[in-house]
Specification:
Belongs to the ABC transporter superfamily. Macrolide exporter (TC 3.A.1.122) family. This is ABC transporter ATP-binding protein. One of its GO terms (cellular component) is plasma membrane. About 35% of the residues lie in helices and about 25% in strands. α3 crosses α4, α3 packs parallel to α5 and α5 runs parallel beside α6. The model has no long low-confidence stretch (mean pLDDT about 90). The strands form two sheets. A six-stranded mixed β-sheet has the order 6-7-8-3-9-10, sandwiched between helices. It has a four-stranded antiparallel β-sheet with strand order 2-1-4-5, with helices on one face. The protein has a single domain, classed as Rossmann fold, CATH 3.40.50.300. The protein has about 220 residues and is α/β, with parallel strands linked by helices. It is built from seven helices and ten strands. β9 and β10 form a beta hairpin.
Length: about 220
Amino acid sequence: MITLQNIEKVYRTSTIETLALNNINLDIRKGEFVSIMGPSGCGKSTLLNVMGLLDEPSKGTVQLDGQAVTQYRDKELARLRNQKIGFIFQSFHLINDLTVLDNVEIPLLYRSQNGRPRQDYAKDALTKVGLSNRMKHFPKQLSGGQKQRVAIARAIVGNPDIILADEPTGNLDSAMGNEIMNILQQLNDDGATIVMVTHDEQMAKRTHRLIRLFDGTQVL
């Protein structure tokens, strides 16, 4: 599903060079639920961004479904992200001036999906995360857990093969965090491949496999 070979990521300024990822080799198999852990600043989010084709590695190759994509143009990468990958962020990244339903429809707009089918897909996604009664609400009217459910609905509305989640329970209390994990596990049971960055050992234990990072290097 996702294969990283000899991945290195270096950030450079005029005065300093920072090695964010060093010789990462990973193979995320179809249907897995994988967690990534490590101290703050160790490269977890950078690794997730490389997997999600949001950030280009300085060295190494990224393969998606067996196809090397490292040299793809930006337009080709954007198309792959939209069709194959759903993103969930710790800070939700919802648009406050749009309703819940409108927020969830956004990925389908980039596919030029027609209005009525687009709305139907968004309603189905919100039903899956238990928010069918909040479609006309605005983000400011929702709790943190509800906002994260909207973010999950937005991530799954296009039926992606891969879901990348960056601290999806980080801003939530333990009860709501467990509810979000239950949703992610159900999505995984339904066939989605999920990679999740987390600081929570208990959440990580609920996934199939744990990858640990330290100073940009995979801990074996």
